[in-house]
Amino acid sequence: MDFKLENKVALITGGSKGIGLESALCLAKEGAKVAICARNKDRLEEAKSYIQKQTKANVHIIVADVTDKSECIKAVEETVGKFGTIDILVNNAGTSQAHAFEEVENELWKDDLDLKLFGAINCSKAAIPYMKENEQGSIINVTAALGKTPPKSSLPTSVSRAAGMALTKAMSKDLGEYNIRVNTVCIGLIRSEQLEKRWKNENPELSWEEYSKIDRSIPLGRIGNTEEAANVITFLSSSVASYVSGASVNIDGGFIGTL
């Protein structure tokens, strides 16, 4: 299927590893011009090399901390300066913070919301004027399925991710008249550096394929791969999904018991 992404311009935050990196690669394979931002320049250089070894894409790296509003503006303006516009924004920057309520101090609440919620808010605000000029755009907010049904000791992540879902729905209603679509993907257990460390510490004798099937609570019977999340993000970014906005798509192997 042709996703019609040739020469579209995408900015992916948290683009140096994991879902952000695979999303950048997937978009690049479809012909998009890609800017990736993260805090670590060395990791960004490695990510750029990883993408360019597999594609002929024009990849631009941006060192930026999206907890800082001015850095969000810089990331968008640098993308536009390099490629002339911005069509797609993937708000992916984030980490996993999972603690019991009484363990979470105010500073951690603030840090988590600054990264996951306000990072998305500030990057989106910076990108929207260019999307309005183009009379089209797609914003993907990467959240987490646990924001829908928070388990025990899942704070502050479950709250910041739930806020990201509400933000998505509200934005989609406010921006629809400008043909700007806003959707969220709600991530479940997906292969990551954190999970790989747990695997190597707890069950080094198992292959990844064996380890990924230990958790029997996932209906599809395994942990997901970053490519599987990236494929859905690419679809939602594209004009193939031209009538999809305000959607909350679970990428969790069927684990969460709600839509």
UniProtKB/TrEMBL annotation:
<dbReference type="Pfam" id="PF00106">
    <property type="entry name" value="adh_short"/>
</dbReference>
<dbReference type="InterPro" id="IPR002347">
    <property type="entry name" value="SDR_fam"/>
</dbReference>
<protein>
    <submittedName>
        <fullName>SDR family oxidoreductase</fullName>
    </submittedName>
</protein>
<comment type="similarity">
    <text>Belongs to the short-chain dehydrogenases/reductases (SDR) family.</text>
</comment>
<dbReference type="InterPro" id="IPR050259">
    <property type="entry name" value="SDR"/>
</dbReference>
